[in-house]
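Hello,

Following up on my earlier ticket. Below are the two sequence lines again, exactly as submitted.
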Amino acid sequence: MGAAAESFAEAAVIEHRSGFRRRWYRTPSFVAGLSILGTIILLALLAPVASRHDPVQQNLLDILQGPSRTHPLGTDELGRDVWARLLYGARTDLRVAFLAVLFPFVIGTAIGLLAGYFGRWVDTVTNWFVNVVVAFPFYVLIIALVFALGSGTRNIYIAITIVGWVSYTRIVRGEVLVAKRREYVLAAQAGGLSNLRIIVRHLLPNVVTQAIVFAMSDIVLDILAIVTLGYLGLGVQPPTADWGKMIADGQTYLTTHWELSTVPGIAVVITALGLSLLADGLADLLRPE
Amino acid sequence: MSLTGYVVRRLLQLVPIVLGVTVLVFFLIHLVPGDPARTILGNHATPAKVALLHREWGLDKPLPVQYWRFLHRMARGDLGSSLFYSVPAGRLVVQRLPPTLWLIGLGTFLSVLIAVPLAALAATKRDRLPDQVVRAVPLVGLGFPPFWLGIMLLLAFALHLGRGFPVGGYGAGPLGHLHSMFLPSLTVALAIAPILVRSLRASLLEVFESDYVTTARSKGLPERRVLVRHALRNAVISTVSVLGVNIGFLVGGTLVIEQVYALPGIGQLMINSIFQRDFPVVQAVTLVFAIMVVLVYLLTDIVHALLDPRVRFD
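Thanks for your patience. The regenerated structure is below:
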């Protein structure tokens, strides 16, 4: 009996899970996002090849130089090569942002599944937690948490997780509330499958797409948070190159060397644009007909 | 349900949330690794000083007792005292509040000024060129770090292209404030405008394509009348709720913008206190920021209920 219900429910899942509606290479925003992000990731990975300079190597005889053959984007106030710092900054900021999105994604999705499926007090308690976290402005809570925990990447992950899980929980919970009334879940329940099995095998695959789409745009938010922390001096600690710190350092020389603050900011904007396009394209591809 | 009844019910619903907010702010100190008193006072603190802080904050008591004392103090309006300035943290916050409130107020105003026309244009010209352009705005705009946007505006309008605005500070007198606060508020507005445009366009489309608008059109009413008499009120309702939902983001944005423009608001107070390891002040500012957001949510709900009687009967 259990097995029969399982296979019936399985068929329903396959029917419901529509996969990619179109081919990915026919979705312009997906292709554009992938190319932009791909280029940036490639440059970050190839940083030692793409620049011959060490990003933390100071050269006090060559400070605040304009672009030249040896320094394509010039040097900063400590004589460090700006292009090299930009590349190594991409390494730091992208790595931290991509890792930072994982924990809230997993934890938030799990809590959303439980709250949506079991309802009652589980849902009430979850909602209370969500509403409390949402009462804090995003940057205020992140900054307060990083201050309490101390700076450094590990604590940035913890802070972003404490603040970030709520969005995933909200999205997944909403999806579960709709999905649990559908035939495939009712069939699985009638077939006597365990709650755990229904949640993991039947609900999760159907509700996770929205969370994945959101995760792409959440990376944008995380990059902005990491860069902001760096700007405030609370993020990745110097001398490690980070775009936020580069913008902050350049601000002192705004009247004479405006490019020092401008260039890393443009790097953030382009990266974020790539991710946003990718998220848009993914949403398009995954949207059921 | 009457409006008063609705407001009372909403206020009661806020109680557990505000309590939760205080719990989180309270626990901030317990996130500090090791002995918080020692960490905060630094390596050179004398044991006597550490012991004093322990007693003052009640760190030697069990957690529930500590929280109860924290809550009790707060109920009397006592947010602790600054370790750096030796004055009540609450007084510091109140002194620094005006620039932040200016920034939030003017920022909200400018964001509406930017977002509403763009969203309305996009929604009325659905899928045509203006809509395509407006839809690209969030895609690009969301990736701008607000503080960097601030620096770029400084660069353009205070340093290089034009020199019409001061590079920082709060200015003197209401007109001076307005002049000094324009660029910071514009930064805040531009940072949130992409989100507003996106959600507003969606909710305006819903209004414009709803049955009652179609009915009004099919009755042969002039388009102007349809928009003003039928669509506008509902469009305003959507604007208020979209703005309300996102105001938390706007309020948090002020924190970083104050740093860029050297504005003496509570955001700057928070950052300075962080570097002075002035824990009570950081806690106080965090709490005040959260309370502000909760109040804005409440205000949005009330305005929403005033405009849309259906809300009260939900």
